[in-house]
Amino acid sequence: MGKAKYQQIIDDILLQIQNGSLEAGMKLPTQRELATMYQVNRSTVIQALDILQSYGTIESKPRKGLFIADNKWNTYIKDNIQWQTYMSHSTSKNNQYFIQRINELEFRSDLYRLSTGELSPSLIPNQQFKEILAQSNDIPLTSNYEYPLGSLSLRSAIVEHVKQWGIDCTVDQICITSGALQGLKLIADGLLVPQSHIIIESPSYIHSIRTWHNIHAELKSLPISTIKRNINHIFNHSQRFRHSLFYTIPTCHNPTQHSYSIEERKKIVHQCQLHGIPIVEDDVYGELYFNRPRPRPLKSLDHNDNILYLGSLSKSVSPGLRIGWIIGKSTVVSHLADLKMQNDYGASSISQYIATQWLTNPQYHQWHIQKLKHELLIKRDQFLQSLTSYFSNLGTWHIPEGSFYIWFELYHPIDMKALFDLAISHHILINPGEIYSEQANRAIRFSYSYIDVSDIDNALKQLSQLIIQLQ
Ligand SMILES: Cc1ncc(COP(=O)(O)O)c(C=O)c1O
Q: In angstroms, rounded to a whole number, what is the distance separating the alpha carbons of residues 118 and 103?
C-alpha cells in the first residue's frame, strides 16, 4: 500500500527542513498553494499541517500564517539524529494541535478555563483522601502489585456500587483500569483489528482521542439526531455496519450533554443485539445526572454479555486517582486484564485502596455526590444566565441535565483558530467544537466544572465581545 498523501506532504516538508531548503522562521505557502503544489485537496493539506504543528515543526502566527518553528529542534536537525523521521513513522500519532495546546495551557494559572472537563480542586475531596490514608493504621494498606483484574476488595465494592443502577455482575467480570481511557485503549488493542469499523456518535469524545485512530480503525459517524430518528432501524444497512462495534456515551454525552430516553436505550440494545454489534458503553458521567433516578445504563438492559461497560471515578470524584473499570463477559475481561498487565502491571494499588474505602464507606461517596451536584447546579445556573445575557444573539445551546458541559453552536461561522488564539491573549481558554467532529466548526464546548462561579460572567462577557469582533 502506498503512503497516504498527507504523509507524503509531511515527509516532503521534513526532508526540506533536513536538507536546509526550509529554515526556521520561513513562512510556508498558503493551504491553497500547497494543495496546488502537491495536487491534493485542501483537507489533505490541513491534515498534514495539523500533524506537523502537533510535532512542533511548524507554528501558526495569528493572522500571518504558518512558519517553520523557530526552536532548537529544527535548528539542530541537520546535525543530530533525525528523531522527527522516527516520530512521523510511528503508528501512534500525536494529539491534534488544539488538544496539545489545551493540555499545556491548562497549567497556566492566569486563564479562565471555560472548557476544562475536570472538577476544580475545591470540588475534589482531597481532605477525605487524607483521612482515608490516616485511618490505614486500622485497615491494612498494602502497596504490592494487585491481581491482574485489580484489587479484589475494590472489585467487590464496584459490584455493589453498580447494583444501584441495575447492573448485575460478579467480581470476575470487572477489570480495574487506570481511568476509563485505559479501558478504551485496552479494548482497541485487545479486541479490534486494523480497519475495524467503529460506529460513533457525532460529535464524540472518541474523535478527540487518538486511541482508535492509532489502530487505523475506520470511524463511522452517526449524528445523534440520526440515531434517534432511525431508532427502530439504526443499523439496517447491514453491509455498511458489518464487523462494527458501537461506542456510545448514552448519559450526559461528551460534548453535547445528550441523554437517551429509556425507550431509546432499549431499542439501541435490541438493534445491536439483532445485528450482532457489540456496544462499548462509556458511562463516566452517569452519576452526575442531576435528577434522580439517573437514566439506566445500557448495561443494565443487557442479558447477553453484548456490552462492555466503562466506569470511572475521574469525573465524579478525582481524575488524579486514575481509577476506572471495565465490566463485561468474564473471558473478555480476563483477556483485557492480561493486556493491562503487559502495559503497566495494574492501576496504582494506593489509589485502589483509597477507592475501596471511598466506595464502601457511606459517609464518603453518597454524601459527596449530593454535595457535588448541588455545587455544579449553582455553576450551571450562573453559566446559563450569563449565556442568556451575552450569547443569545450569537448562537444556541441546551440546558444540561447533568454533569458540566454546554455545547454551544454559533449561528454564523467564524475563524475558530483565530478565536482560540484571541481568547488566549485575553486569558480565556475554550475548546473548539472541531476537536469532537470535523463538521462542528461552528461549535464550542463549554464546561462550568473548573472555573470559579464568580469568574463565569466576566469571562463569558469578554468572549462574546471577541466573537462579535471576528464576525
Ligand atoms: C466520555 C469520556 N470517557 C472517558 C474519559 C476519560 O476518563 P478517565 O479520566 O477515567 O480516563 C473522558 C474524559 O474526559 C470522557 O469525557
A: 12
